[in-house]
Amino acid sequence: MTRADARNGRVAPAGRAERGAGAARRASGADRWIAPAKVGVFIAALYPLARLVFFGLTDRLGANPIEFITRSTGLWTLVFLCITLAVTPLRRMTGVNGLLRFRRMLGLYAFFYAALHFTTYIWFDKWFDLAEILKDIGKRPFITVGFAAFVLLIPLAATSPRAAARKLGRRWKTLHSAIYAIAALAILHFWWMKAGKHDLVLPKIYGAIVVALLGWRLLAWARAKFAARPRV
Ligand code: HEM
Question: How is the cofactor bound (predicted)?
């Protein structure tokens, strides 16, 4: 794109612009840390699964292994949701733009642990017995809320590849803002479950984290809106 193009507001096609930016990054070498860091994050994010496998093999899943696995995978789904939501505020605060390159992987890990959580419940806990599941939902309605969060996560995971993002254009961003609703539903699911046990310490901590992360976005949005207003 020439300077005249830029002045006239002409923009290179997305693919070309991205390739250009990619080449510039490679040339500068400033982002050289990202590839090894990504491998590190990928391996570290497998820790919750490795821990469950290790506990399973060494007979440490407790008296109720299904409950242990359901709870562990549920909590890790929430942890990965929070980490994914923290990427943008961290990038803005630190100015390290490369952090954005971890967001997709972290979001996919949230989906991965949610899928394990769901599979453990529906398969190993309920053996696909619909009548049993409906009876349980009647007794513990918080399960429906978790289910809603999981269903909303599916299109986000399905459209996470770059090709899908390119194809969807601006609609991708709108679709992916569902992550805010998912985080809110996850907290409601957790809170409701623990309220029945009169143990709200953890839901309060995670609730505060999610409120802070969503509140930061709301403030950033309000500030941008205010700054864009024409001054009289
Ligand atoms: C984004 C989706 C979801 C998130 C973030 C999530 C998160 C959680 C969390 C944090 C817990 C409590 C863990 C603990 O006690 O420390 C939990 C428990 C539970 N979740 Fe989910 N969940 C999700 C989806 C689902 C789905 C789809 C189902 C089933 C249809 C489900 C069923 C359950 C059940 C049955 C428990 C309680 C297990 C027990 O009583 O021991 N969740 N979930």
Answer: Binds 1 FMN per subunit.
Query: Which letter does DSSP use for residue 120 in this model?
Result: I
If you write DSSP's letter for every residue of 140-164 in order, what string do you get?
Answer: -THHHHHHHHHHHHHHHHHT-SHHH
Give 46's pLDDT tier (boundaries 50, 70, 90): very high
Instruction: Tell me the residue ranges of DSSP E strands in 53-204.
Output: none
CATH of 33-228, one of 2.60.40, 3.40.50, 1.20.120, 3.30.1490: 1.20.120
Question: To test ligand 1's pocket by mutation, which of 77, 125, 130, 189 has the most ligand atoms within 8 angstroms of CB?
Answer: 189
What is the whole-number distance in angstroms between the Cα of residue 71 and the centre of ligand 1? 6
The reply to whether ligand 1 has any atom less than 6 angstroms from the CB of 203 is no
Average pLDDT over residues 67-91: 98
Full-model pTM = 0.88
Tell me the residue length of the chain.
Answer: 232
Return mean pLDDT, the chain: 89
